[in-house]
Structure formats: structure tokens, C-alpha cells
Amino acid sequence: MLPGAPDPPGWRRRWGRQPGPGLWCPSLLLLLAVLLGCIEAQTGPGSGGEPELNVYMSEEEVRRLIGLDAELYYIRNDIINHRALSFNLIIPTETSSLHFSWHSKSKVEYKLGFHVDNPLAMDMPQTNISLQGDVPRSLSVFRVDLFCSGKMETEIMLVMQLNITISSAKNITVLNFKRRKMCYRIDPVNVAPTTSTRVFYISVGVCCAVIFLVAIILAVLHLHSMKRVELDDSMSDSGSSQGLSQPSTQTTQYLRADTPNNATPVTSYPTLRIEKNDLKSVTLQEAKAKVKDIAISRERVTLKDVLQEGTFGRIFHGILVDEKDPSKEKPMFVKTVKDQASEAQITMMLTESCKLRGLHHRNLLPIGHVCIEDGEKPMVLLPFMNWGNLKLFLRQCKLVEANNPQAISQQDLVHMAIQIACGMSYLARREVIHKDLAARNCVIDESLQVKITDNALSRDLFPMDYHCLGDNENRPVRWMSLESLVNKEFSSAGDVVGP
Ligand SMILES: *[C@@H]1O[C@H](CO)[C@@H](O)[C@H](O)[C@H]1NC(C)=O
Ligand SMILES: *[C@@H]1O[C@H](CO)[C@@H](O)[C@H](O)[C@H]1NC(C)=O
Ligand SMILES: *[C@@H]1O[C@H](CO)[C@@H](O)[C@H](O)[C@H]1NC(C)=O
Fold it and tell me: Which residues cross the membrane (predicted)?
């Protein structure tokens, strides 16, 4: 079926009620999966005498979880939608139940099981159907309840396994539904109006974006005036001299100063989730175990040129060979460590690489695969973006600007900033805190598409951007430095942002 053709039964789109633009961007990828799944299902083998099994999320459920008006089929008329199954949906803290709709024309047996990667943080999920039985013959809904134990604040990887046995053919189909459940404390005072919490998160996202936009525009002004060579470094330097000992108050003040008309009452700021850096509590074995499901064989990866190099980390341009068809190759970023890297550094690379895992948005670049074979240096693979790191790119633009007639325009920069805003707004809605948004953690391709990525190895590759505040922990001091930067040059920034 083509998207323009009449809707087949069961596939209902409501173009009349499109979600707002903010909801569109995160949903596009998923919509694509829904559409492709639909096409796949329609072109699949006919269903003569087949059980006609359907498993899906209703439109209501998809809207609740993703904000898109569509049904999401996992199985449609016996055809499995692998794209839909590959989505690792994020379940926010306040959502504690999932609903699946299913039915089958003839006898199909099922077995249901769950796997939780951190049983301490979450109790085993409960369902309101038995764990073994026959798929109902009429359209039914089952519920899966997810309860955080409250003993820990963390994210939990959760797999719901549904084994399907079609009685005529005695073989089992194993389906894995992956979910990433957030278990964070929600300030009880502010729990009640979830929409206002959401608005708050979005506004925080937008604030981040505005700050970033201002930073980029200032960067351009600097490029044009050619006054400074090392913008970011000077930013950091000026920041480091200004009361770094109180990072949290600085951030709050900044939010207030930047958004004087923000309707969000100041009292709601405590809802901003504060994440502790608990990297030290994770061992290398645990970090490896967490990424086991995306591990691939080292043989499929060929390393080419080194793109960036630090004291213990390196980013390569690599080639990933397709699993089934060895003639198909995909370019990748490969983050890896050198021989002298300590176990803690390797653990940190693996842990930080998972920051955006399971997120699907065109302005986010989450981890793709890992190679964690014993005796080899671990590698983290991300899809390749051919113009590479955004910070290096912007720096290079400045260098070539003098003799390059096609230097990037201000429109391009604003377009980049908007894309980052889009990605951040999505992160905010998914309750993922990036903690280190900066140009160094973004990548760009030749169509000027920008994607936010994780900050694994950034401390090593951009040491000038991180400061050790008397202890052994390196922090990006960008918030403080931007504030001072903005305060100092507020008029010129206001002029640019104003129109
Ligand atoms: C599903 O089948 C696989 C392979 O046969 C088995 O390992 C797994 O335990 C089964 N899961 C459930 C929930 O029964
Ligand atoms: C399970 O719960 C859902 C929603 O709470 C309900 O719609 C459904 O009928 C229940 N299913 C069974 C088998 O009780
Ligand atoms: C499972 O059943 C399908 C459909 O009947 C059949 O095509 C397939 O070969 C079977 N697979 C195995 C491993 O028996």
C-alpha cells in the first residue's frame, strides 16, 4: 500500500488532528516505521487459512506514550513488524502501565515473560492476563503494570517476551518488546498536574535551546569580527573565574535571568531532576552487561582514518559490514580507547555512550552497536555523519571563511540551532537529561542536519571545555561561562535574537 492509497481496514490516520510541530519531529521516525510496517504487512503472503494474528498498540496508547495519532502494529495479519519491535520505547516515571491490543482468528498459544535488568529498582511487571494461554479470538486488551520499587533512582531496561506458537506449525516465534523505564522521584508537591510538569520540561528544553542559539550566534559574530581565535576556550576561562563553586545557583539564576516573563513559577524549579554521577558505582562488567544486547562481532568492523584523538580515547571513521550481505557496508563513527586507558575510563565511555540509547528522533544520534569481545578494546559504534563534530566543523568554517565564498550563513546556523532545540525538546519530554549539551556533543552532515549525541570521550577530546573544580571530577562549565558571556555581550545578542 502506498501512503496515498485508501486506508486499509485497521489503519486509521487522523490527518485532521495532527499533533503540533513539537510532537511531529520525534514522531516522524516512528511514523515511518508504522507506514513501512503497514506496507510490509500489505505485501506479505496472503492469509488464506492462517491464524490472522494481530498484536498492536491502540491509537489511544500510542498517543499516550509517543504523542502520535496512529496505531502501532507489532504483528498485523501474521506479519511481524520488526521495525516496530526494534523501537526501545521510553516509559516516563509517571507512566506505570502499558496496554497491548490483540486478537487472533484461530488457535494461537502464547507464553509471556519479562526480564528486568535491575530487579532492585523495579518489581517484576504484572499483567492482568495469565502468563500462558491462548490469544483471545475477539479484540482484547491486556495491561502490563510497571512499578518502580522506589529503592533506587535509575533507568531500567525491560524486555517483555511473547512466545507465540501456532498450533498447526509446531514452532515458536519469540518476540521481544523492549522498554526503557524511568524510575525517578517526582517531587510530591508538584506531581498533581502532569501537563504543567511537561510544560515545565519543555520550557527547560526550550531554554537550553535558546541558550545554545545565543551561543552559536555569538560564535558567528566572533567568526565575523575575527576577534578571538578560541571562542570556547575564552568562554570557559571567563567562566571559571566567576564563582564556579556554586554551579546549581548559577544555573537557576541563569534560567530566571533569561526568561523574565516565564510563566512557570519559581517554586517549581525543584522539580528539575538532579541526577547524581554514579559512574563510580558501576563496574566494567556491569557496563558491558548493559550493552550486551547491541553487541556485534569485531570482525564486522573495519577502522579507517582517525577523526579525533585524545589522551586515552579516539574516534575513528569505521565501516560496518552488513550481517547478512557482506557486500553492503555502512560508515560509522567508532569510539574506542587506547591501550593505556584505565578500566574506569572504559566503563565511563560505555556508560556515557548509552545516554541517548532507545531514543528515536532525527536530531538525536544514539548508540548503534558495541564490540565488547574479551581481550579487545571496547568499541562504540554510532551512525556516521560525514561532516563530523559540530564544534570542529564550526571552528573549521571560521578558518576557511576568508577564502570560501560558500561559508555557512546565519540562516544555516539558526537552522542548526532549531534542530538542536527540536532534539532537546524531545529529550525533555522523554525525561532524559543530557547534562552536557554543547556543540562538541553534536554532529553534522553535508545537508546541515545536526544531531545531538552523547558525551562519551568528550572530556578527553575537548579537555579545554572541562574543569576540575578542586575534586577529581571534570565538569563542563558551559552554563556559567555562557552566562557571563551573555551578560557581557547581551546587547549584541539581543539584537540578533530579537527579530
Ligand atoms: C520463549 O522461547 C525461548 C526459546 O524457545 C525460551 O528461551 C524462552 O524462555 C521463552 N520465553 C517464555 C516467556 O516462555
Ligand atoms: C486488563 O486491563 C485492561 C485495562 O486496565 C482492560 O481493558 C482489560 O479488559 C483487562 N483484561 C483482562 C483480561 O482482564
Ligand atoms: C515455522 O513455521 C513456518 C510456517 O508454518 C514455516 O514456514 C517455518 O519453516 C517453520 N520453521 C521451523 C524452524 O520449523
Answer: 199-221
At residue 348, φ and ψ (nearest 5 deg) are -65, -40
Separation of CA 406 from chain center:
32
The per-residue pLDDT for 402 is 60
Kindly give the pairing relationship between strand 388-389 and strand 442-444. Answer: antiparallel
Ligand nearest to the backbone CA of 177: 1
Average pLDDT over every residue of 460-471: 74
Instruction: Please say if the pLDDT value at position 235 is more than 50.
Output: no
- Measured CA to CA in angstroms, residue 152 lies from 76, 398, 430 at distances of 38, 46, 19
Active site residue 436: yes
Ligand 2 close to Cβ of residue 129 (< 6 A): yes
- Asked, for residue 443, whether it belongs to a domain, the answer is yes
Q: Provide φ and ψ at 306, rounded to 5°.
A: -80, 125
Q: What is the pTM of this model?
A: 0.48
Quote the cell numbers at residue 403.
577564502
State residue 472's pLDDT score.
52
Same domain, 272 and 321: yes
Radius of gyration, alpha carbons of the chain: 24
CA distance 311 to 334: 16
Centre of ligand 3 to C-alpha 197, Å, is: 49
Q: What are the pLDDT digits (tens) for 145-176?
A: 998 888 888 888 899 999 998 877 778 899 99
What domain count does the chain have?
2
Whole-number pLDDT of residue 223 = 64
To the nearest 10 degrees (0 to 180), the angle between helices 194-225 and 410-429 is 160
Determine the structural domain holding residue 50 and report its residue range.
15-188
Pocket test of ligand 1: the residue of 109, 124, 162, 174 to mutate, having most ligand atoms within 8 Å of its CB, is 174
Q: Please report the atom of ligand 2 found closest to the CA of residue 129.
A: 13
